[in-house]
# Entry
Amino acid sequence: MTINNMTNAAGFEENYKTFNWNTQNILSGIDPDMKDEDIALYLHDVIDEMTTYKHIGYGAYKPCGPLVYGQAVCEGYATAYMYLLEKAGVQTYKVYSNSMNHAWNYVELDGSIYAIDATWDDTRYSGSTLNGAYGHKYFLKTDSEMEALGHYDLKVSGDVKVSATSDKYSDSFIHTVEGASKFYEGYWFYADGADIKYANLSDSEGTTVLTANGTVKLVDVKDGIITYMVGSATYTYNLTQDSSKGANQDQTGSDNQDNNNSGTVAGSTEDGASNQEIDLSTCTVAKFYLVKEGGSRKNYSSGNYISLGKGYIIEEVKIQDDEEAIIANLAQIPSYENYVSEGKRVQWYSIKKENDGWHVDGEIVKKEENQEPQAPSEPQAPSEPPAPSETTDSSESSEESGSGNIDKTEEGTTENQPINSDNQDTGDNQGSVEETHVDDTSKQEIDLSTCTVAKFYLVKEGGSRKNYSPSNYINLGKGYIIEEVKIQDDEEAILANLAQIPSYESYVSEGKRVQWYSIKKENDGWHVDGAIVDE
# Structure
């Protein structure tokens, strides 16, 4: 199919790059566990999230409407949806009605045809696309159901003789879901009033994971952590999986997790533990890490650290090498006893803000004689942190993306990298790591012949990650990464994987630094992206 007609538009080359970048980025968000019906839902939500219903000329009728300009009429919605579905390997058709002056889609799933109207799910649901709201009333329907909803006199593009008759999804839960649902390990998680539930698309009702103390907005489900909002407050919930899949409510259910917003501090002084009641709804989520026994603070390799999961800090303040002040600012600490051997203790040495949120860092050190451990076991609290793992998981299954790791961040956004032109290779096959960590710099010899070439980009000062125009980025040229792994919003893991970084000093003014936020494979190879930020 014709993807667009941008030949008469200003900046054709830039628009074409944006089109290809957005297409690849969207398709990279397809989870390997998704079936065709799941892909259809994922792409439906992507189109509705990114598009405002507006006539902008010829492009409003083509895939470039949503995928370049974020604006389209019904045919633009339908052709962009069709284009993405075809790219994802799902058979699809464009349906139109001259009498209605309207277009929508058919999709073929397991030999059966279903109707989907992404436009009306966007505009008819909310009355306006400007507020970001959309529904699923017109998703996976039969022709008769669509007729009852106001569709008539339809024809299939190309005069293909197919019709939507299967009612497999007629009673699906998805038809009443407001906004995005999130795919995780074979299930769709969604908000239903005060509940968060999970289900398959063919299910009429989901299984409740948790019940909050107010209407819930689902933000993300990733790495076993549900992030959601009640009003303006953001919470996380640790999924404990049982043999039937999903959350084990008996262990971390809503009765002790979400019906109150208070918790207990997990902090201590050198003289012993001191617990006090803390309202966690006023605190900030933070990620807790421990340097392993015998490890080094300056070794930013993921194998050097233990990821304890998420806890809370009381105030958003940067503290370095002042353990007493750090402990006083800890509201909830994830459990770490399994990692600390006899005669050892945890020494907390840093609270700092990284690209993916607040971090609390500690190390395992020898316990002084008659000295108590620095922190007690984790108490019960409304947002249980994830179980510790040996390394920080940096391999995303896609989100939207990205994400990724969502603490107190803006929801509904995906931060990605642009596709830019090739650059000349710099350096030879031998070199050294150039790491520019927030607090320190570490260099070690690396055999570049074992590494992978990557293209390095920087968002300009004052620029935005969400602006994919080449003029928003500085093209640093080529460097090297150690392993071909996708990493998003985990600067320490990214730094640990950089073998050689092209020079960027001339672009960074005094009081600024480079913050690396992404390693990702694009259609032209591996990309490493950073931004120029305040020190």
Summary: The longest strand covers residues 344-354. Residues 95 and 159 are 10 Å apart (CA to CA). The chain has four domains: 12-176, 184-257, 263-366, 431-534. Residues 241-276, 369-444 have pLDDT under 50 and may be disordered.
